[in-house]
Model the fold of this input.
Amino acid sequence: APKKGDVTFAGGLTVKPYTEIYSKEAQIVTTAGVLTFTRKDGSAPTPHNLNVGDLVFAKAGKRVGEDDLLFARLVETEYFPELSRHLKFDGPSRAVIDERGLLAVADTNNHRVRLVRTATTLKLNLLDLGEQLPDISFRAVTEADWREALGLEVKIAKVPLDGAAIVLRNIPVLRVFLGGLSTMSFARNDFITEPEKNFSDDQYREDYQLGNRNLVSAAINTLKVMYTVQRWLHHLSREDEADHRWGNPARKRTLKVDLLRKPGSYHAWFAENINLGSDETGRGGDSWDDSVIVHEMHHWIFDKSVQPFPPFGLGGGDHSHSQITSQTLAILEGYAEYAELFWGGEYGGMDRVRGFRLAAAGVLSGSLTTVREYDGDTLKNTLYLAGGVSSGAAPTFDAPQKGLEVEGYFANTLWQIHHALAEPNILFADAPTFWHCHNSFLTQEQSRRFSAILRKAMRNFPELGLFDDRRKKGSEMYLKQVLQAAHDDASGFAQLVQSIYELNNQLLPVLTMTRGTSSTTPGSALADNVDLNETDTIAFIVQLKDAVGQPLVGYNVHFAVTTAGDYTVTAGGPFQRGATPGTGLNAVTNNSGIVNLSFEAPPGSGGRTETMTISYQPDFDTDRTFDPPARGDDQETTLRKLYLYELRTAAKSWPNSGDNFGARISRTITMNIQTP
Done:
């Protein structure tokens, strides 16, 4: 009702109580007639012709208030064949259907086999075309019972919205029982059903169409995507610790989804619901964008997976995948973006190797090439990830670990570790943005490895006090936990994880310099300024460790010095990684991550100042992690090495050759030589 007023029935309109929805005022029209609404202000009455099956929510002769529900029209279910999905083949030569209705078509000129789930239960060879026969057209119609495909149970209230779009609350609410069942309710009409058998054998059924038709279809699409996410996580985590496998019925939780009438999708921390907004760009609401559904759902999944919760300070505000924000936003949004990439990304396809793709000519949406620094709402600088303004010919390489504050590069890091550890075959996948990404098939070992490193790390956050500074370092803490889990795991992939960190400018090696001569342990503390006399010798211990304190072996350390002849270097070996500049001194760390170095002040050098800069800089063209396969490698090792070999240029966004470097870490020591 637009205003307060009175309702009368005319034209033979008769109704009777309707009990299939939770509304004591609901009545169903049994004889067609007219419902007339007369405003209290004396305006002309408004007649509404109602038909059998329509619902009435107002009593004849009774006054109604503003925005009270008057009636709702019955909307008949319709089928729109032009909206069905069309599959294009190029030279199909053979098609077969198995007893479960799975259709396989040999799409010869596209060099692939296309799979389509149909409703038939007939097992046969459908066709054998031969090259001389014309192309054919056929339609495979999917039935309503999708037990094998989706495992959802949906019941939609019989409450059409046609004439009551304003007064009926138009926010569908999806209740998803993760690990078990999904149900749907609309407006104030809540129908809770039970699973018919088990997680993999629920029923997906539409009892009635509830229009606005687009909203219903969007809600069903949302449920479908959310179930696909569950099946995906269930498969990935099946070798996790029993209590933490996704889909464990003993740990059932409920997630609610609101489809909003305004733009903007979000999840509030601690909330048990996610909100999917409408869209004003012409692409349709976010409930039609699979990657947005996955993104928002993974905010909730993240909440339920990390232990303890919350392990770090929570934050919000404006952000984008290329924006420099904070370590808190980087992990909160970056983790959801990592999952989103398996469904293609909101504004376009992903790069099967990198994650978010580099920008190409004419393709800017969804790309991640540079990073952006803001001052409030004003763009301050556009930068290379490794440092320096993007207008320069190459980075300055002087911004170590800047990627920890950029959600897109955090997401890329997890994407790359995931595929290197568990799914390197994506490099050769057919149309990965269309179907491969979330249609994973992990071996038991790959599932165990994924769970032991990426998932278990989410449960290893430390208990922190409210004012502990580490609460501001969410991305750093989690990546340290992933690295430690990789060290603890017998698969031996800690160095692989470390190299991917360096590639994305996340956790870089930790360089320390002490005084002493040991080749296995650090020495005494060393200040940045050291005094010594002519002809004195001072010994240094340079050590590289990763962020969790494990020595880094085979790393090249560079020494920028004035006179190389005044130094003696004892190196380890063999060389594994690191830039090797042509000037100064280079030495490779030993099994303890150490390089020993000594400096002798030459006679007559009193009053001179000797400055020595010690540095490590990644060189991804020489990093052995990114080597191509070798003779004798098994299939999985070969696929992994091919993936990593392709990955080594993933962060290089400048055109030069021979400088595929990462951000540099360094320390400078100044030696003041005195005359005795």
